[in-house]
Specification:
With 74 residues, this protein is mainly α. It contains four helices and no strands. The radius of gyration is 19 Å and the shape is elongated.
Length: 74
């Protein structure tokens, strides 16, 4: 298997574990954030988490930067 494909080293490392079709498939693109519906849904999901005081991620967040995600923030 050539190393000139995406993640070639990783694919070779798992060649004995993964099915052949998984090893050879092309890398899928991530959702495009330029899509307004995707961006809106992602923002709403993040704001929901930010406004949940019991969300376990809060100790890992920079609250000041996250506040800029809120509508009307600059």
């Amino acid at each position: 298997m050539a190393d000139d494909i995406e993640k070639g080293i990783l694919r070779r490392a798992f060649a004995s574990v993964l099915p052949e079709d998984v090893i050879r498939r092309k890398k899928s693109a991530y959702p495009n954030a330029q899509n307004p519906l995707y961006e809106k849904a992602t923002r709403e999901w993040a704001l929901h988490i930010l406004h949940d005081p019991n969300a376990p991620i809060h100790p890992l967040l920079d609250e000041v930067k996250c506040a800029k995600l809120s509508p009307g923030a600059n």
